[in-house]
Amino acid sequence: MSETNCKDEEDTFPLHECVFGGDVRKLSSLLRTNDVTKKDKHGNTALHLAVMLGRKDCVQLLLAHGAPVKVKNLAGWSPLAEAISYGDRQSISSLVRKLKQQAREQMELRRPDLIRALEQIQDFYMELKWDFHSWVPLVSRILPSDICKIYKSGSRIRLDTTLVDFTDMKWERGDLSFIFQGDRPTSESLTVLDNKAKVYQKVRYEETENEIEDEVDILMSSDILAAQMSTKGILFSRAQSGWIFREDRKETVAGIYKSDVYTITGLVLESRKRREHLSTDDLQKNKAIIESWTRGNTQNLDTNGEPVRRASLNPPPETGVDWNVYISSPPGEYPSLGRELVYKESSRNFRATLAMSDDFPLSVDMLLNVLEVIAPFKHFAKLRQFIAMKLPKGFPVKIDIPILPTVTAKITFQSFEFRDNNPPHLFVVPEDFVEDPLRFPDL
């Protein structure tokens, strides 16, 4: 690359170049007139570079100006992932706080449109059946099923379910209700009821300081994970039936909805793990700690009962890579700026079926709005992500979707009716329920 062209590219990314040079004063000045969200040719924002290079003052300054934390570079890594790799605890804590703040702000921006959309949908009652299965025989044998009941009235939604949470090998059953009250202030709009214990918990929008630090401990002690469902090569083709005379397969779902059945191919679950920030000793110790966390003991306490916080790592050696070398490299192929990556990749192809019906009364857009409300339940978030893809014509009355690398779910919309008489008491907390702010620690 010629010196002139290189200079042109330098001028294109002044924030990035400032971070490389560690020039905080100039960065502060440039932030008044430059886009803090801009990516360079490698997909990195200025915040990516600041955490990779250990420019702590730059990190704080960029966060103060709203640098996005969730954005990913060409390699698929976020600034938070790179901060964990570098290992500076203060920077990781700052990024976690900002990530949660930005998520709240995005939800607040979306909220008025969501409420309006819900109010425009006629009130209804709907049932979804979840059947979980796995290609691992022993896992498949113990996986649960669940019938979720959803009631909608105005801007209020109630979801009744018996499945609290699950992993590959264990799940928690219960009798739960999730209530969204769109006419209440944000801090009071989401509530989860444990109907057996007669307790409820408001879904909090802000974490305590201890919860933030607990999360930082977990992040610093665990693999850096990146998992995504790749739909680049996805194909929907009409499923066929018949041995000799082949014809497009049709199915009546739940005895009501006449459907065209499609085969889904090209759906790939890609996952990557990084662990350059973990020593061999870490890996052995952390296995026991993480097992303790999964049992609900989120803090490692010293003899005085105080949390033992994970310390910052020693900075990685200086690489000597300068701005010219970095920006002159082919896209995504720049030299390492921090620790040498230690990672492995895996992918799994999913083949699934999908039944689309024109008879279902709800539209896909309406369903997406409903699912956005109940997205704190992880498996519903996965369902929303799948339905947001460009599906064939109709409504997806039966779907196979991957939930975990070893677990898929078959979701069937088995009942739906518009109702204008859903009882008001369904959408409020019963008077004899007691608040328990710690009943659902993940919410």
UniProtKB/TrEMBL annotation:
<feature type="domain" description="Ankyrin repeat">
    <location>
        <begin position="158"/>
        <end position="421"/>
    </location>
</feature>
<dbReference type="GO" id="GO:0006621">
    <property type="term" value="P:protein retention in ER lumen"/>
</dbReference>
<dbReference type="InterPro" id="IPR036770">
    <property type="entry name" value="Ankyrin_rpt-contain_sf"/>
</dbReference>
<dbReference type="GO" id="GO:0005789">
    <property type="term" value="C:endoplasmic reticulum membrane"/>
</dbReference>
<dbReference type="GO" id="GO:0005102">
    <property type="term" value="F:signaling receptor binding"/>
</dbReference>
<dbReference type="InterPro" id="IPR055285">
    <property type="entry name" value="ANKRD13_C"/>
</dbReference>
<feature type="repeat" description="ANK">
    <location>
        <begin position="42"/>
        <end position="74"/>
    </location>
</feature>
<keyword id="KW-0677">Repeat</keyword>
<keyword id="KW-0143">Chaperone</keyword>
<dbReference type="InterPro" id="IPR002110">
    <property type="entry name" value="Ankyrin_rpt"/>
</dbReference>
<keyword id="KW-0040">ANK repeat</keyword>
<keyword id="KW-0256">Endoplasmic reticulum</keyword>
<dbReference type="Pfam" id="PF11904">
    <property type="entry name" value="ANKRD13_C"/>
</dbReference>
<dbReference type="Pfam" id="PF12796">
    <property type="entry name" value="Ank_2"/>
</dbReference>
<dbReference type="InterPro" id="IPR021832">
    <property type="entry name" value="ANKRD13"/>
</dbReference>
<protein>
    <recommendedName>
        <fullName>Ankyrin repeat domain-containing protein</fullName>
    </recommendedName>
</protein>
<comment type="function">
    <text>Acts as a molecular chaperone for G protein-coupled receptors, regulating their biogenesis and exit from the ER.</text>
</comment>
<keyword id="KW-0472">Membrane</keyword>
